[in-house]
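tmp note - Hydrogenase expression/formation protein HypE
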Amino acid sequence: MSDPKSVITRLHGAGGAYMHNLIKEYFLQLYDGYGEVGLDVLDDGAVINGIVFTTDSFTVRPLFFKGGDIGRLAVSGTVNDIAMMGGDPIALSLGVVIEEGFPKSDLAKIVESIKNTVEEAGVHIVTGDTKVMEKGSLDKMIINTSGIGVASDALKYNFTVLRKTRQVKYEWLVPMNLRDGDKIIVSGNIGDHAIAILSSRQGIEFEINVESDVAPLNKMMKAVLEVGGVADAKDPTRGGLADLLNDWSEKSGLGIYIRENDIPVREDVRNAIEFLGLDLMELGNEGKAVLAVSPEMARDVLDTLHKTPWGKNAAIIGEVRKDIQGVILETAVGGKRLVTRPVGDPVPRIC
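out:
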């Protein structure tokens, strides 16, 4: 096995501690102070002259899985990164790297999926790039999507409400906006995407009928911002809830307390997790959002989520607390354990 101290390994791209350390050691030195929300925030996007900008590359295996494919994943992932910062997504680029010998029939299916997903999200593909690599030098296909968005009236209203309870330095959804007492809301069942990917891979088939949750969430986010009181939002992709909540705790300087019994999860997904020896807190998701909401508005935000197609199973799972450090999980049997940032994603190449 390669030594992660001297060479790049898959752990460095898995969304956990190794990846965060790699970014801080090598790439953060590129930050030169530019942007209202810049590279130093290490969020899923940046804000430049009022424009939200993000980019992401997708290497999911297999390309087609239960509930989705690499095309739907690429559009949804980039749309969601913009939406989770409070931006209203407008346009995307599409960069595709294809292995020589790739079936045109599969390419047609992926392009059709991209078309359907951008229509669902209400965004536009406006530019792109195509490359073909020699057979054997690439695992079928990689897609890169970059996107831009702008602040909506809903975002401005959200911060009008939030400013009634606190001072706000960033009028974008970032972890530094969190305060003691904020409620932590997850928009739906956790773990569906990771288990759907696993059940679609050759040699890991088991009796379970779970589809990926992959979906663009910008319309759901607009609905909750129109209620107001949202301090931050993020989709729990690589590294899952564990990585997301540790990121919030580190950047806000506050603790986060979560109750395991309150985390929504399908029973068959829970059974699969136990069978495979996985940790629910570390599983990636591609159609869920985690929100930090002022306690005064949490119930209204939850009710609004329940009225959307993407938030029917939304639940309050915990709160931000200044009297603890890090992320504490109250287990199903009443114990407490410290949840640390995962080393890497337990299910590689889910996005």
